[in-house]
Amino acid sequence: MTPDLRLTDLHPALDDPALTSMNFLNEVAQRYPDAVSLAAGRPYEEFFDVATLHRHLDRFRRHLAEDLGQSPTQVHRTLFQYGRTKGIVHHLVTRNLAVDEGITVDDEAVVVTVGCQEAMFLVLRALRATPRDVLLAVAPTYVGLTGAARLLDLPVRPVAGGPAGVDLADLRVQVHRARAEGLRPRACYVMPDFANPSGASIDVAGRRRLLDLAAEEDLLLLEDNPYGLFPAGDGDRPPTLKALDTARRVVYLGSFAKTVLPGARVGYVVADQRVGAPDGTVGLLADQLAKIKSMVTVNTSALAQAVVGGALLEHGCSLVAATVRERAAYTRNLRHLVAGLARRFGDAGPVRWNVPAGGFFVVVTVPFGVDDALLDRSAREYGVLWTPMAHFYDDGAPVDALRLSVSAVTPAEIDRGLDRLAALVADELTRRVGTAVR
Amino acid sequence: MTPDLRLTDLHPALDDPALTSMNFLNEVAQRYPDAVSLAAGRPYEEFFDVATLHRHLDRFRRHLAEDLGQSPTQVHRTLFQYGRTKGIVHHLVTRNLAVDEGITVDDEAVVVTVGCQEAMFLVLRALRATPRDVLLAVAPTYVGLTGAARLLDLPVRPVAGGPAGVDLADLRVQVHRARAEGLRPRACYVMPDFANPSGASIDVAGRRRLLDLAAEEDLLLLEDNPYGLFPAGDGDRPPTLKALDTARRVVYLGSFAKTVLPGARVGYVVADQRVGAPDGTVGLLADQLAKIKSMVTVNTSALAQAVVGGALLEHGCSLVAATVRERAAYTRNLRHLVAGLARRFGDAGPVRWNVPAGGFFVVVTVPFGVDDALLDRSAREYGVLWTPMAHFYDDGAPVDALRLSVSAVTPAEIDRGLDRLAALVADELTRRVGTAVR
């Protein structure tokens, strides 16, 4: 087949691991549909149902008429037509942030987006103005962040994460180093709660120090918080960076994929930073993001927003209240996984893992290289899927660790998956001994 | 208020007319909600209703189970979870293209997008690989195209449009000129059917010559077709460029905003071009676009796609059949507008207009400058909104013309709008005489 175009003539990101790795992981999952997936980060789906969709839609429709006083024509137009670029559930988002997070922001500072991914994309597009701009990101880093940055020709420089969630000394070093090279570090991306993929969280003191450092270094923080509502058991929910942010240092990235419905593809960004124009006028960063959004997706599907809006209304805008059952399921699964790891690998062996205080992910460290070839063998020969941690580092170096996810499985599947993983690990350890002997 | 950020430190497109003009037009419309809008390009809304939404959703659900044989768990997952990057209604899109347009493409060549805007954005991102890349676009040009290109640092060079829809001699000149400057013209953007904003269409012979020229000059064509289903009366629907394209020269951009529902935000791109990788493998351009999409919006809302899918299924995937009432309304309005212009401005006066064979838009040429200040005065003093044609040219030069839209008004509103426009024109002509005398 003669090609019509050459890949090398297209945007260079298309041949970059940040974009191809997601594809590879999806392909492996599709090739082995019967494997137990401890890889998928998708949310628990047992509680979704179609009747709920219809109910949420109707609920939001009533809200437009009864609470907002829209006429039948206006309701009609809000649901069916092109709409406000910044969204139609922005006021419910701010209520949710007030109720669940103690965050107070103006409705106008919110842009409702096509999932949190679009929110990240818009922010990175706004911040990347020149080839001197770079982004800092706590490592290991969600691959969707790295991929979006790559598409925007924005280099991402890692900041050490570590068990405390972020290494503040390293953050300062990275800022200074970038500036010494004549570069502009525009922001630091961080997931303070049960991070993907590390599972690590930053404690309250650490959050305050991070905000202080951001102020000292004149740096924005991009706070991504998809998992904060899922502490294990009755675990604490420390205040978000945004709740502690008195100086508009934090751009807050939110998702309804894990709390309401991934199929809606609704997320948002809170961008209350004041932007000064050369003519002396001052507006919100949210309005600049909306300008970008108008050229990327125009506006977020009104139907999808209506479903999310109805879900928020049903629980007085509290997602803490809305996700009681999900939280219980994730807690059960996380505990089951950690106990299962202990039972199979002991606490003195070469296999180690962290015990996150919540969220979807656990990182397992093993005494051998964990690459895509091993994942492929794991799927083919052992019937279990997981994610090589190397996918979350940008430098391509090998990492002796893998990520397990507990969000989309049952306890029985966790057991089956761990049995298979243990068999794979035993085989790898044997091979390794064999190699050492030869 | 002290700013936190400076606009001049953000992406330069944010201060560019291509992005600010859309904002300005929206603001004027919001400031004068009681003005008659001959500006809005949104579709006719009388036939939308909520019951239809629920019906379409259920219809698509049955399709997954009964036609595609999905198990209840699979149906559930398709509707509620993260989904296939290229979409879940791709097979219905290709059926629609076969039924209505005589276009035969593989399901895998389709990427379902968040409206046609995302489709454009993905294609431009893929094609813009180096600072030497430029895009050609038939002028006047839809401002969403120009804005997306600006966000991707991709210069847009105009190609003369004219009454035949595209000036092929000028297209060749522009290609050669760009190449002589060391630039790479990656594609030419064109709307062959009832273009926005010109209303012009390209006849069949012109389409064939355009394809020949694209082959001779080794150029891709980006065919955007939001209005093709709306010829006035029993008017012809000439084959799309894609239907005539035997050499995969055409990337086809589709929208369901005007045919099904703007509030769904569902569009698509057909990209069957073969892309050769350095390792010798060959894949589809659609797969490269999907990689980009995974980092922009992940996937298009399954709920929104389900509604569009149900609408397609209800009419055997024919949108020609689904839009009989809409087509009649647009035809009635277009004829009413053209007759109303003739009645008010005569056929020998200084005010002239084109008579498009279909679509939403008519261009009115007047013997005085038409700028944003005039629009503001028109809204404030005369209560009528329209769009200055200067917004659709990228060079900022004044244009003595305005765009009228017939899609979202009644005949009575058209009459009222035209009366007011005639009063504004009379006033401008008087002022002009006054100025000439002074």
UniProtKB/TrEMBL annotation, chains A, B:
<dbReference type="InterPro" id="IPR004839">
    <property type="entry name" value="Aminotransferase_I/II_large"/>
</dbReference>
<dbReference type="InterPro" id="IPR015421">
    <property type="entry name" value="PyrdxlP-dep_Trfase_major"/>
</dbReference>
<keyword id="KW-0663">Pyridoxal phosphate</keyword>
<protein>
    <submittedName>
        <fullName>PLP-dependent aminotransferase family protein</fullName>
    </submittedName>
</protein>
<feature type="domain" description="Aminotransferase class I/classII large">
    <location>
        <begin position="100"/>
        <end position="421"/>
    </location>
</feature>
<dbReference type="GO" id="GO:0030170">
    <property type="term" value="F:pyridoxal phosphate binding"/>
</dbReference>
<dbReference type="InterPro" id="IPR015424">
    <property type="entry name" value="PyrdxlP-dep_Trfase"/>
</dbReference>
<dbReference type="GO" id="GO:1901605">
    <property type="term" value="P:alpha-amino acid metabolic process"/>
</dbReference>
<dbReference type="InterPro" id="IPR015422">
    <property type="entry name" value="PyrdxlP-dep_Trfase_small"/>
</dbReference>
<keyword id="KW-0808">Transferase</keyword>
<keyword id="KW-0032">Aminotransferase</keyword>
<dbReference type="GO" id="GO:0008483">
    <property type="term" value="F:transaminase activity"/>
</dbReference>
<dbReference type="Pfam" id="PF00155">
    <property type="entry name" value="Aminotran_1_2"/>
</dbReference>
<dbReference type="InterPro" id="IPR050859">
    <property type="entry name" value="Class-I_PLP-dep_aminotransf"/>
</dbReference>
